[in-house]
Design brief:
Helices cover 51% and strands 11% of the residues. The protein is of the alpha/beta class and 199 residues long. It has one domain (4-198): Rossmann fold (3-Layer(aba) Sandwich). 42% of the residues are buried.
């Protein structure tokens, strides 16, 4: 079986959904349906993690590289806490390099997903936050992740538009995506994942 490591935060651990609803788990199931012998993911992710907190957790984790597929989705909590885009670029770049190393220095086996827009959720609207500013800041973060991924040869999949098109597909907390929204993310990621694993 091919191995899969998923790195991230609440969106990767699937806050508020059953284990089977997490998008990395759905992706593995979907790829097996396409004939790819991919094992269930090893997930290193926790709700609330920023880029530096994910990095610290990786320092303490036990890995068994090289992984055949590594996914990375991180940054929403940097934006939520008001951290700068420059800091995000530097910390994301380091995480991407670590992801590539864990994929056996095969950048083409690293799948980066964009950060969804939590500003469209009832939680955001009820918190008095400036939802237009949230969208703008996340667009900047995502442009950085896209730029860094492209520069290193990793695959970038934009799921931010899906989050904006389907603001009602949420878990009970009114903030995190539901399994149904994660299924849409999975479908968006499948073509890139198939191409990566066929290469």
């Amino acid at each position: 079986m091919l191995s899969y490591l998923a790195l991230g935060d609440s969106y990767t651990i699937g806050e508020g959904v059953p284990d089977a609803g997490r998008w990395p788990v759905q992706l593995a199931v979907r790829l097996r349906r396409e004939g790819v012998a991919l094992d269930d993911p090893t997930i290193v992710a926790t709700t609330g993690w920023t880029t530096d907190e994910l990095s610290t957790a990786m320092d303490a984790a036990t890995f068994t590289p090289p992984y055949d597929l590594v996914s990375l989705l991180i940054g929403v909590n940097n934006q939520y806490r008001g951290r700068s885009a420059d800091d995000y670029r530097e910390e994301f770049r380091r995480l991407l390099e670590r992801a590539i190393a864990l994929a056996g220095q095969r950048a083409a086996r690293v799948l980066v997903l964009s950060i969804p827009d939590w500003g469209v959720t009832p939680f955001a609207h009820g918190s008095g936050r400036d939802v237009l500013r949230i969208a703008d800041e996340l667009d900047v973060y995502n442009a950085i992740a896209h730029d860094e991924s492209e520069r290193r040869g990793a695959h970038f999949v934009d799921i931010t538009g899906i989050s904006r098109q389907h603001p009602a597909l949420l878990a009970d907390d009114g903030l995190h995506p539901s399994a149904a929204q994660y299924a849409l993310w999975t479908e968006a990621a499948v073509p890139a994942a198939l191409a990566m694993l066929a290469g």
